[in-house]
Amino acid sequence: MRLEGVFARYGRRDAWVLQNVDGEVRQGDTIVITGRNGAGKSTLLRVLAGLLPVGRGKVRDRPDIVGWVPERFPTAQPFAVLAYLQGIARVQGLSQSLAQKTIDAWGERFFLTPFFATPLEELSKGTARKVGLIQALLNPPQLLVMDEPWEGLDAQSQAELPAVVEELTKNGGSCVLTDHRGRAADLGDVRHWQVHQGVLKEEDAPAPQEDAEHHVIEIVVRTDEVGTTVEWLREAGYDVHGTRERR
């Protein structure tokens, strides 16, 4: 898949968000896109996924099957989790039996099975993110595009993502993602694209930075609030090292 002189924006009179972008995604690639907020990272992902048409330039040889994982999965839909995934599987052409087998397998892998009967609108951000991941993987994508895929996930699901990416790329697929939390280091051999003011350049692996000073704090909550508090903290970007009963 190649980008050739791509310009992109959201409205005819808007400024260009991407400007004269050239790039190639090859089979087996894992590409991590970095850049400041507003630089155009998410716009580039949408162009790669085919969700945003380009204003100038060309996108050539986009794979037939593209999996798209948005940063925030849209939960304002009148479906329970299982019904939604079954519907997506039908749209993607999976038979009923294969669809259910695939949904069950991914549900177990991402610890989503207990939520199959839960309406989408009642899901937390992290659980909704799991639905977004699974719907993108039901029909094995040739290109998987993910916007901040670790954000909001529980520790077990975060640890599962590198294995998913490795399996995809070993089978000839490609993966392009953004990652502001530095978790892409778990993905092994990756390429790095940096977007700055709408311009793309490929770079070597970013130089390791000295760790910023960190502090460990403890908070005390009621027993029935532990789960929701841990989830809120993770969604806010904090690392939760564990919980224990207060003695």
TrEMBL record:
Localization in the cell: Cell membrane
InterPro entries noted in UniProt: AAA+_ATPase, ABC_transporter-like_ATP-bd, ABC_transporter_ATP-binding, P-loop_NTPase
ABC transporter domain segment(s): 1-222
Domain of life: Bacteria
MF annotations from Gene Ontology: ATP binding
Stored Pfam families: ABC_tran
Alphabetic keyword roster: Antibiotic resistance, ATP-binding, Nucleotide-binding, Transport
Keyword set includes Hydrolase: no
Membrane topology category: Peripheral membrane protein
Family per similarity comment: Belongs to the ABC transporter superfamily.
Protein name per the record: ATP-binding cassette domain-containing protein
